[in-house]
Amino acid sequence: MKPLSEQTILITGATDGLGKATAIELAKLGARVLIHGRDEGRLAAAQAEIVAASGNDKIETYRANLASLAEVRHLAYAILADHEQLDMLINNAASGGGKPGDSQRDLSLDGYELRFAVNYLAPFLLTQLLLPCLRRATPARIINVSSAGQLPINFDDVMMQQHYEPLDAYRQSKLAQILYTFDLAEKLRADGITVNALHPASLMPTKMVKEYFGRTMDTLEDGVNSVMHLATDPALDNVSGKYFDHQQEARANDQAYDAAARQRLWDLSMELTDAEKIDFVPD
């Protein structure tokens, strides 16, 4: 892999929590870090904090609401316009389980179940759109921040219209990320782009965790160390299509290893995002 000081790295959901903390560590190593968030004010504040903490002024901001696939497309187009190459994509942004007892089924701006849309469909589309940028930077890495909380996808009710519970929606979306990780790794096996997913840490002190669980377990530093392991360890240069729990390779839910389920999810994702319009080089 290239020295971090020569890399351009995009982190989604980087205005607080794990995303911002990871951005700081990558900036300290000299990387050009592109940070994404939903709010211009919070992006500006995060940018200033990262620059101050790292002494690195190569921090760029990009605003998009990942609950809108149109805004996901605009985000990708803005990055493609600004940067010929992208060395690393860290899909970190996520919508959590909400508040305990909350049973309201929230929808994205496109009418999809919100957590499936934000946690899975948005990074799916963003990644597909940014593949040309990643290909031009090879060797490149894609890191999908998932979770040990995984629920098999019910393809008869993916949007959970019949049986809805916010935490289950979150868990389904996180397993979907892993199915996509394994599938994309296979499709990119000859392209010099690795694709891996991870559970960075358990119950870190983030807003999502505090809102739902009201308690913490691991530290934010634990999570950052896990992401940095996948982002910077040269021993992982040729490791792709894996799921990590913290810094150790682990086994995901059984559905992730079901080729038919992965194909079904791929087809559904292409349909829901209109990603078939993307010039994707087949394997």
Written description of the protein model:
The chain has a single domain, classed as NAD(P)-binding Rossmann-like Domain (Rossmann fold, 3-Layer(aba) Sandwich), CATH 3.40.50.720. β1, α1 and β2 form a beta-alpha-beta unit. An eight-stranded mixed beta sheet has the order 3-2-1-4-5-6-7-8, with helices on both faces. Helices cover 42% and strands 14% of the residues. It has eight helices and eight strands. With 283 residues, it is an alpha/beta fold. α3 packs parallel to α4 and α4 packs parallel to α5. It is globular, with a radius of gyration of 17 Å. It starts with 7 loop residues before the first strand and ends in a 10-residue tail after the last helix. The longest helix is centred in the middle third of the chain and has 22 residues.
Blueprint of the fold:
Blueprint lengths: L7 E4 L5 H12 L3 E6 L2 H15 L4 E5 L5 H14 L5 E4 L22 H22 L4 E6 L20 H22 L5 E7 L7 H6 L7 H13 L9 E4 L2 E3 L8 H15 L10
Parallel strand pairs: 1-2, 1-4, 2-3, 4-5, 5-6, 6-7
Antiparallel strand pairs: 7-8
Helix pairs in contact: 1-2, 1-7, 3-4, 4-5, 4-8, 5-8
Shape: globular
Q: Could you say which structural class the secondary elements and strand pairing correspond to?
A: alpha/beta
- Strand proportion: 5-15%
Specify the number of helices. 8
The count of strands amounts to 8
pLDDT averaged residue by residue: 93
In angstroms, what separates the terminal alpha carbons? 23 Å
Low-confidence stretches: 279-283
How do the helices and strands follow one another from N- to C-terminus? EHEHEHEHEHEHHEEH
Largest sheet, order of strands side by side? 3-2-1-4-5-6-7-8
Taking all Cα atoms into account, the compactness measure Rg is 17 Å
Note the main sheet: 8 strands, mixed
Please state the second-level CATH architecture. 3-Layer(aba) Sandwich
